[in-house]
UniProtKB/TrEMBL annotation, chain A:
The keyword Transmembrane helix applies. It is a multi-pass membrane protein. Belongs to the binding-protein-dependent transport system permease family. LivHM subfamily. It comes from Halomonas beimenensis. One of its GO terms (biological process) is amino acid transport. The chain crosses the membrane at residues 18-42, 62-85, 142-162, 190-211, 223-244, 256-279. Keywords: Amino-acid transport, Cell membrane, Membrane, Transmembrane, Transmembrane helix, Transport. The keyword Membrane applies. InterPro entries: ABC_transp_permease, BCAA_transport_permease. This is Benzoate transport, inner-membrane translocator.
Automatic annotation (TrEMBL), chain B:
CDD domains: PBP1_RPA0668_benzoate-like. This is Benzoate transport, extracellular ligand-binding receptor. It comes from Halomonas beimenensis. InterPro entries: BCAA_transport, Leu-bd, Peripla_BP_I. Pfam families: Peripla_BP_6 (PF13458). Keywords: Receptor, Signal. The keyword Signal applies. Gene3D superfamilies: 3.40.50.2300.
């Protein structure tokens, strides 16, 4: 691999990692603060992609579709939290896992009923539907650069909220000791509703902006879910900073692993997870 | 419908009536066809297209097979391999069907064929392309009316070399279907003197292709051969085009890369070459007649799966006429099925000793959002099926 292609692979790894971060950030928030293993997180990613596909078809404008799809995603999170999760907080973790697993089945089937089993796609929207030459025979989609920018900006916003706002202090405290936060008179129920809705919206938003880069097909969220759990575990449960660096690490590992050691490509991320857990059993930043 | 077709249909109908009139009353019962196809889940559209094609062919024969009424027993295979043996047993032992038609999915085929071996049930596979079905697992009572992975990819090896490509990179998913497909391409391409520089295996079912595309660009091959299907096919072709590779490195594939995906490709597939046993634009009387009949009956354009179902029906029509509707004598029915020759919408088609179709494979290019047939890549290609000794 010469230097130019090495550089391109770095870019590929970074872009994939940043998108992973966006999906994993919601997962780690929900997991860390609410203690809920949201298995339906991947399905939410899929719903985001299908929503934006559907709305783009109807409205003819990708950006408008995203603007409308975001509140729908937040509402979906709100309904699921208030209607289903709320009744299970007092119960054992197993009930919550069963519920979110059931949600995968329900959401996947709903997707089939509404949108069918065909593969769909969303055109790369203007003004980003262009390519930049990287080497003499390889180009890079400008939209991919745009997605990287959006992910970085969102990472910055999330970091600022967590570090520099009152809400952020509560979230950080909640991740460390939930009972104590409740004991201090903070309305945990509202906090949970907020966290879950934002978490769902983040992953659905990732599905929306990834839609023009991927094919929209049934079950597209299932495989990404596992990778995101790996990211969350590596970074440390509940840590946004951990999710960020974990996602970049996994993005790079998948990219370079698939090219340099193809026979181990599907194992690389799990090997890294095992190695990290051996040294830091609670993850890198927990 | 053209006149010749009408005449032969009528003639065979008439002869069937004459012949069957003298048969015992046992033959008055309907012929029972067991359809073990996916009617729910990801492959629903395929199951329905096959069923539509099958019933169309039988309807065109007056809704009868060998003079007898037809009863369809539908069973949803759910494309679930773990339920396959049990479902197949239910059709064969419980419903006592005369012929089983299915499945779509190769994993389900493995389970079905186990039961077909034990019971000797006559089974016609209208899709699943795993090579073993008519090779290592071959049985006299099993037929296929579709394709094998090898049959659709081998011709592309010849085409690639013929177009002057010498160094080719292949890329596919790391699973049985992908490996069988690339093996067919590699066999033909290296036989002719081509050099397969590298075969890239992507973990199944990942659709994250950026790093592989960068690798392909750095290898600078004359062409890329690929097999992905469904969402993977769409993602790969779109990413390939977005990376600007389409202009310098032609993209070749076996038909399922783009089959049923043209709309989702959103224009990115223009210029992609594929080889397959059918194209909706085939310019023949049989295909035009089929397309308009299917459109009239089901209100949509037929696809490859519909053709495979239609040919399954046409095969049954011909074979049951041959045995005058007698399904009791299995050996005679199997012999009649093996002797079937069709003027199918896909072109002339007959069966090899391993009960696999001998058929044309076409070279197709996507132009203006359609698979245009450029040429017959290999005429009347027979799948070797070396391991099959009947």
């Amino acid at each position: 691999m010469d230097l130019a292609f090495f550089g391109v692979q770095l870019l590929n790894g970074l872009q994939y990692g940043l998108l992973l971060f966006l999906i994993a950030s919601g997962l780690t928030l929900i997991f860390g603060i609410m203690g809920i293993i949201n298995l339906a997180h991947g399905a939410m990613y899929m719903i985001g992609a299908y929503l934006v596909y559907d709305l783009t078809q109807r409205l003819g404008n990708f950006w408008l579709a995203i603007l409308i799809a975001i509140p729908i995603a937040i509402l979906l999170g709100l309904i699921i939290e208030r209607l289903f999760l709320d009744t299970l907080y007092k119960r054992d973790h197993l009930y919550q896992v069963l519920l979110t697993f059931g949600l995968i089945l329900v959401l996947n089937e709903a997707q089939r009923i509404i949108w069918g089993g065909d593969v769909h796609s969303v055109s790369v929207p203007a003004p980003f539907d262009a390519s930049l030459p990287l080497t003499d025979n390889l180009q890079y989609s400008v939209y991919r650069l745009f997605v990287m920018g959006v992910c970085l900006a969102l990472a910055g916003v999330i970091y600022w909220v967590i570090r520099h706002t009152r809400l952020g202090i509560i979230i950080r405290a909640g991740a460390v000791d939930r009972d104590m936060v409740e004991g201090l008179g903070i309305d945990v129920r509202t906090l949970f509703t907020l966290i879950f809705s934002v978490g769902v919206a983040l992953t659905a938003f990732a599905g929306m902006i990834a839609a023009p880069l991927t094919s929209i097909a049934p079950g597209m969220g299932d495989s990404i879910l596992i990778t995101c759990f790996v990211v969350v575990v590596i970074g440390g449960i509940g840590s946004i900073k951990g999710a960020f660096w974990g996602a970049i690490l996994i993005g790079m590992a998948e990219t370079f692993g698939s090219v340099l050691i193809p026979s181990l490509a599907s194992m690389v991320i799990y090997l890294i997870m095992a190695a990290v857990l051996l040294v830091k059993p609670r993850g890198l930043f927990a | 419908m053209n006149n010749a077709f009408k005449k032969t249909t009528l003639a065979s109908l008439a002869s069937a009536c004459v012949l069957s009139s003298g048969l015992a009353s046992a033959q008055e019962d309907p012929v029972k066809l067991g359809l073990m196809l996916p009617y729910s889940g990801t492959y629903t559209a395929l199951g329905e297209a096959i069923t539509n094609g099958l019933t169309l062919a039988i309807e065109q024969n007056g809704g009868r097979l060998g003079g007898r009424e037809v009863e369809y027993v539908r069973l949803d295979s759910e494309a679930d391999p773990s339920k396959a043996p049990q479902n197949m047993s239910r059709l064969v032992r419980g419903d006592d069907v005369d012929v089983v038609i299915g499945p779509v999915h190769s994993g389900v085929a493995m389970g079905m064929l186990r039961v077909a071996k034990q019971t000797g049930a006559i089974t016609i596979i209208p899709n699943a392309g795993l090579g073993a079905a008519t090779n290592q697992l071959c049985m006299p009572n099993v037929f296929r009316t579709s394709f094998s992975m090898w049959q659709n990819s081998y011709p592309m090896g010849k085409v690639a070399y013929g177009r002057g490509h010498r160094d080719v990179v292949a890329i596919t998913w790391d699973y049985a279907g992908g490996k069988e497909d690339v093996a067919g391409f590699e066999e033909a391409f290296t036989e002719m003197g081509g050099n397969l520089v590298e075969t890239i295996y992507v973990p199944f079912p990942s659709t994250e292709f950026q790093s592989y595309l960068t690798q392909i660009a750095s290898l600078e091959p004359d062409a890329v051969y690929t097999f992905f299907a469904g969402g993977g096919g769409v993602s790969f072709v779109r990413d390939y085009a977005a990376a600007g590779l389409m202009e310098n490195i032609p993209l070749l594939g076996s038909g399922f890369l783009t089959e049923g995906n043209i709309k989702a490709l959103d224009g990115a597939g223009e210029g992609v070459l594929t080889t397959m046993h059918y194209a909706e634009t085939l310019d023949s009387d049989a295909n035009r007649a089929f397309v308009s009949a299917y459109q009239a009956a089901h209100g949509e354009a037929p696809d490859t799966y519909a053709v495979q179902g239609y040919d399954t029906g046409a095969m049954l029509v011909q074979a049951l006429d041959e045995v005058s509707g007698n399904t009791e004598d299995q050996a005679a029915l199997i012999e009649a099925l093996a002797g079937v020759e069709l003027q199918s919408p896909r072109g002339p088609m007959r069966f090899s000793a391993s009960h696999h179709p001998i058929q044309n494979v076409y070279l197709r290019e996507i132009r203006d959002g359609e698979h245009q047939v450029l040429d017959v890549a290999v005429e009347q290609l027979e799948v070797p099926d070396d391991a099959c000794r009947m």
